[in-house]
Write a structure and sequence with these properties.
alpha+beta, about 80 residues, 2 helices, two-stranded antiparallel ribbon
C-alpha cells in the first residue's frame, strides 16, 4: 500500500522554494517517481489545471488515470498556488 503525502513549502519571495523542490524531484529515483511541474498564474482556470494533470497521465480505463512510466508514482509540483 502506498503512502500519500502533501508538502507545502512557504517562505518569502525569491528564497528558492521552487528551485529546491524541482532539484529534489529531478534527483529522485526515476523508476519510482515520475515528476511533473505545473505553474499557476493569475489566469489559471480549473480547466487549465485539469488539462495539466490529464496531459501528464495516461488513461488506463474510462475513469482511471495512471503515470506514463509504468510502476512509478506521479508527483506533481504546483508552483505559485496562491496566484489564481
Amino acid at each position: 500500500m502506498y503512502n500519500d503525502y502533501n508538502v507545502l513549502l512557504t517562505g518569502e519571495t525569491g528564497v528558492g522554494k521552487s528551485v529546491i523542490a524541482k532539484d529534489f524531484m529531478m534527483k529522485a529515483d526515476s523508476e519510482k517517481i515520475d515528476p511533473a511541474f505545473v505553474n499557476f498564474s493569475g489566469k489559471t482556470t480549473c480547466r487549465n489545471l485539469q488539462d495539466a494533470f490529464e496531459g501528464n497521465l495516461d488513461q488506463k480505463r474510462k475513469n482511471e488515470l495512471a503515470p506514463k512510466v509504468r510502476g512509478s508514482r506521479k508527483v506533481f509540483l504546483i508552483d505559485d498556488i496562491n496566484m489564481p
